[in-house]
């Protein structure tokens, strides 16, 4: 079996890439790495693309952008034409339901997310078992298009049960979205 190094990127479909980019820049310090599909390009679609990407017939990718945020996985955003729209996933739905971002200052990150148009689902609250160390905190937000974002901090790290086979990744503090 090949060696997996980690998550490279997370794909996210948004109704408007420019609005989503502004939101991620203002709330999380995102930076554009590149645009691999623009409105100046011919939309990507048709039978081969439908097969390769598993998209519905007659749907077309009109914009595609790679964002970096801190030193975690990249976010690859898609904007479609002729979308067979579905509501964003909720936490109880099957599939990938939210993105979680680690922060050293959850109060500041909370405020930035709110000012950028994110809607908090609650105030900052304690994490659950194995994440409930001193100074921990978490909060979920809805993005302007309805996706879920979690902000989380664990300044004292995690603790682990006896059956644990690994430790959870925490982004390196030397590289942040503000660098």
Describe the structure.
This protein has 179 residues and is α/β, with parallel strands linked by helices. It is built from three helices and eight strands, in the order βαβαβββαβββ. Strands 1-4-3-2 form a four-stranded mixed beta sheet, with helices on one face. It has a four-stranded mixed beta sheet with strand order 5-8-7-6, with helices on one face. The protein is globular. 22% of the residues are buried. The model has no long low-confidence stretch (mean pLDDT 89).
SSE arrangement:
Elements: E1 9-13, H1 17-28, E2 31-37, H2 47-53, E3 60-68, E4 74-81, E5 98-102, H3 106-115, E6 119-120, E7 137-142, E8 148-153
Helix pairs in contact: 1-3
Which short descriptors sum up this protein?
3 helices, 8 strands, 179 residues, globular, four-stranded mixed sheet, alpha/beta, 16% helix
**Radius of gyration in whole Å, from Cα?**
18 Å
- Widest beta sheet: strand line-up: 1-4-3-2
From the spread of the alpha carbons, the general shape counts as globular
- The count of DSSP E runs of length 2 or more, i.e. the number of strands, is 8
Strand content: 25-35%
The largest β sheet comes out as:
4 strands, mixed
Task: Please estimate the helix content.
Answer: 10-25%
Average predicted local confidence, pLDDT: 89
Order of helices and strands: EHEHEEEHEEE
Number of discrete helical segments: 3
Residue runs with pLDDT of under 50 for 5 or more positions? none
Helix- and strand-based class? alpha/beta
- The end-to-end distance, rounded to whole angstroms, is 36 Å
């Amino acid at each position: 079996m090949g060696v997996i190094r980690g998550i490279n990127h997370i794909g996210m479909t948004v109704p408007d890439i420019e609005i989503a980019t502004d939101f991620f820049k203002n709330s999380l310090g995102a930076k554009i790495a590149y645009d691999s599909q623009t409105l100046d390009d011919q939309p990507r679609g048709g039978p081969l693309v439908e097969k390769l990407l598993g998209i519905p017939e007659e749907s077309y990718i009109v914009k595609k952008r790679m964002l970096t945020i801190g030193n975690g996985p990249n976010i690859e955003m898609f904007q479609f034409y002729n979308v067979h729209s579905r509501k964003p996933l909720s936490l109880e739905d099957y599939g990938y339901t939210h993105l979680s971002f680690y922060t050293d200052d959850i109060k500041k990150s909370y405020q930035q997310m709110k000012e950028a148009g994110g809607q908090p689902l609650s105030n900052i609250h304690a994490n659950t078992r194995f994440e409930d160390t001193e100074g921990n905190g978490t909060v979920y937000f809805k993005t302007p298009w309805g996706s879920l974002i979690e902000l989380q901090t664990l300044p004292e790290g995690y603790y682990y049960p006896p059956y644990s086979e690994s430790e959870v990744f925490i982004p390196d503090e030397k590289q942040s979205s503000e660098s």
